[in-house]
């Protein structure tokens, strides 16, 4: 399996051809071996444009959605970014290349540990993974220039609004547990200005400011 060639094709066919334009984002995708972020048995499918199971009932998002959400954060390199829902750590690796510091929160300890291990092995020293209910954000490290939630929410978790810097971008899927709309919201004069971008489907954010864990 020539993963480098598959990765080049993924970038051309699934990202560039579908409208991802930010060259820094496209370059970041070229650097990250997606095959190392999926279970070994699924490595052959790592570069197809669909989500894949990563264990514990969770999914790594399809490459196009990862790219779109990353682009919507509008990163230039000097930012502090918060990610909720580390999962495999693939999105985290993209952010670590494109921002100054990345703080990522994962609710499941086994996924948090595996992602932290992978990110360390690949040398991303500016990626910090924590095991906690990310619906509270990461208040000790706020404010953030960008916040990305890679799990579905019924509405914007209140703590994230407070932890977003003025002018910062919040990117998240809002809707029901079955289907959501990807939203980019900018903070202006202390309030969010939301914009709907695309339809999407994510696993639910389970926690205090997400969905109740008992309705799982
Ligand atoms: N960005 C990931 C995709 C993650 S799937 C990747 O690239 O692989 C969504 C993740 O959100 C799952 O790992 C799930 O366990 C996590 N999650 C759900 N509720 C959460 C919460 N309250 N806080 C932090 N993580 C949560």
Notes on the protein architecture:
- There is one protein chain.
- The protein is α/β, with parallel strands linked by helices.
- The chain has a single domain, classed as Rossmann fold, CATH 3.40.50.150.
- The chain is built from 6 helices and 9 strands; from the N terminus they run ααββαβαβαββαβββ.
- Strands 5-4-3-6-7-8-9 form a 7-stranded mixed β-sheet. Strands 1-2 form a two-stranded antiparallel sheet.
- Strand 6, helix 6 and strand 7 form a beta-alpha-beta unit.
- The longest helix is centred in the N-terminal third of the chain and has 14 residues.
- The chain is globular.
- 47% of the residues are buried.
Overall number of structural domains: 1
Tell me the quaternary state. single chain
Uncertain runs: none
Number of DSSP E strands: 9
Strand order of the largest sheet: 5-4-3-6-7-8-9
* Mean of all residue-level pLDDT scores: 97
Q: Roughly what fraction of the amino acids lie in strands?
A: 25-35%
The CATH architecture category equals 3-Layer(aba) Sandwich
List the helices and strands in order: HHEEHEHEHEEHEEE
**Radius of gyration of CA atoms, rounded to a whole number:** 16 Å
- The CATH superfamily appears as Vaccinia Virus protein VP39
Shape: globular
- CATH first level: Alpha Beta
Number of helices, where a helix is a run of at least 4 consecutive DSSP H or I residues: 6
What fold name goes in the CATH topology slot?
Rossmann fold
Small molecules bound in the structure, each named once: S-adenosyl-L-homocysteine
Distance between the termini: 38 Å
Largest sheet: 7 strands, mixed
């Amino acid at each position: 399996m020539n993963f480098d060639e598959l990765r080049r094709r993924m970038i051309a066919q699934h990202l560039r051809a579908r409208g991802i334009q930010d060259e820094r984002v496209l370059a970041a995708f070229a650097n990250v071996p997606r095959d190392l972020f999926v279970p070994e048995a699924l490595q052959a499918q790592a570069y197809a444009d669909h989500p894949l199971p990563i264990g514990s009932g969770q999914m790594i998002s399809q490459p196009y959605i990862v790219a779109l959400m990353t682009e919507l954060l509008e990163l230039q390199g000097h930012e502090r970014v918060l990610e909720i829902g580390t999962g495999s750590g693939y999105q985290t690796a993209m952010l670590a290349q494109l921002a100054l510091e990345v703080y990522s929160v994962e609710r499941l300890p086994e996924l948090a540990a595996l992602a932290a291990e992978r990110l360390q092995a690949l040398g991303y020293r500016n990626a910090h993974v924590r095991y906690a209910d990310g619906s509270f954000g990461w208040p000790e490290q706020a404010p953030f220039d960008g916040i990305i939630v890679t799990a579905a929410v019924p509405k914007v978790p209140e703590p994230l609004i407070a932890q977003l810097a003025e002018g910062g971008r919040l990117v998240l899927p809002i809707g029901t547990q079955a289907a959501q709309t990807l939203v980019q919201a900018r903070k202006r004069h202390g309030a969010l200005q939301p914009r709907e971008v695309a339809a999407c489907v994510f696993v639910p954010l389970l926690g205090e400011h997400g969905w109740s864990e008992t309705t799982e």
